[in-house]
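Researcher: Let's run the pair from yesterday's discussion. Sequence first, then tokens, for each.
Model: Starting with the first of the pair.
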Amino acid sequence: MPRLVRIFNFIMQLKVDRSSADDKIGKDVLLLMKNVLRVVIIVTGFLWFLTIWNVSLAPLFASAGIAGIAIALAAKDTLANFFGGISVFMDKAYKIGDYIILESGERGEVVEIGIRSTRIKTRDDVMITIPNSIIANSKIINESAPIPRFRIRVPVGVAYGSDLEEVEKTLMDVALANPNVVKDPEPRVRMRAFADSSVNFELLCWVEQPASRGIEIHNLLKSTYQAFADNQIVVPFPQRDVHLIGEESG
């Protein structure tokens, strides 16, 4: 029996060592399987020896059943997180390095997927730990799937009376001049609405990674502002006309 346990430990350790360093959940599952199966082998061997010695197993099974119920009730949250982790592993809804948005609204990069919990790091460098029992039953938006490429939207308003063809061309030139904007699919410009003080456009383009969303929106807005100034395209601001009606005397 000790030799069998050592052989099993050796085989499982080889599996763990061959796991990719990035495949954190794979290592966790292998280590869990190693520990669980080792316990199963030891318990099975112990029961087998008791059977050989003609020891009655009925009292032992009765005691184990009562103990198992007590343990299950005391560790129900732990078991829920464990099975939630297995569900996350089987579904493969996200992986290390993906950017996800939680149902509660938090957005961040997945940095660790464990058996009991998942950790994401927000853009404010805040670490959020979510129990797997919760995340397995929540709506998760994966911005990195099915492909890492991510579309960004840049809303822009121009004054009434502007040359709309010139506005569209200027926005396209701004997007194509940005080296971090993906050229395939190519950027798009769409007119969205006649607003109270402006004609609203939206520049749609793609970047390689969701992590680049914030900085590239910043860069595109700066470039758009300068390009509009160079081409005499007016960015309006809300205005109100107030008419005063005097009261007639007498």
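Model: Moving on to the second of the pair.
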Amino acid sequence: MNSGIIIYKPIKGQTFSLFDQSESTAKYYATIHALADICIKKSGSEATLLKTVRDLDRKKSQLKNFFRSKQDVDLNSYILKLLYSELHPYTAEVTNHLKNLSVLKKSFDRTLNTNEFQYHLQMLEVELVNRINIDDFRKTSQKFALLPHCLRDFTKQCKSEMGDLDYVCKQCNKDCFVRHASVTLKKYDIKPYIWMNMNLKKLAHKLSAQKEIFGVLGIACFPELVNGIRLCSKAGIPVVGIPLNANRCARWTGSFLENSVDIEALDNLLNSHLNSEGNISIKIQN
């Protein structure tokens, strides 16, 4: 665990919050783990399920029809219904967000226009990618993490400085979640950077062209995290990720709001404790 006491405040995001009505995000992580177990058993393997999830995410216009289908034997319908039944409390704000989104942004910003079914699929995708990639990630000789600048404490002046790839936390504020994450990451010999200037697509191509295999860990809201994971995956880079507890940056809300990430979930991922200790009962569809 990270040193010191970390205080979490339940926060509400523009589209999602991993707190739901709880004081912590532990229930979310237990739930997504249990859902992944069920869906893997239904599909046959982690790799098969990951392909199914990614294919579904690309079929945005068809998701509502899959969800409404009465053919419960259909894997697509089964997955969407199961995910919605358990994950809707964490994404209840998506409908209102899309209702108030301008026509221009709906047309040209796929991230802002992510619908609720896609959020659920992306939640499952992150869980699956972590399970599949964590061993290869751990074996890499060089590892670095990209932390979103929205995790900074905006009530105080950030003293981060430009490093070799991007900005580096100077640990000036004990309550800052960039600092909390950096302390945990360094414990596992992972270099943390605050993602300010880096072009991830160019970086992925650069790393894939080098002989040495690098491991990448991302922290971001679900649409951005999944986009980064897919870029790294295409480049053959072992990648894992942890979602923000909510999406509260200026892109979503118009201004930067206080944000956080579950440091225990990060520590558990890097320590290979992927199995949640929570007791989550999920009713499986017949």
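Researcher: Give me one sentence on the second I can quote.
Model: The chain has twelve helices and six strands.
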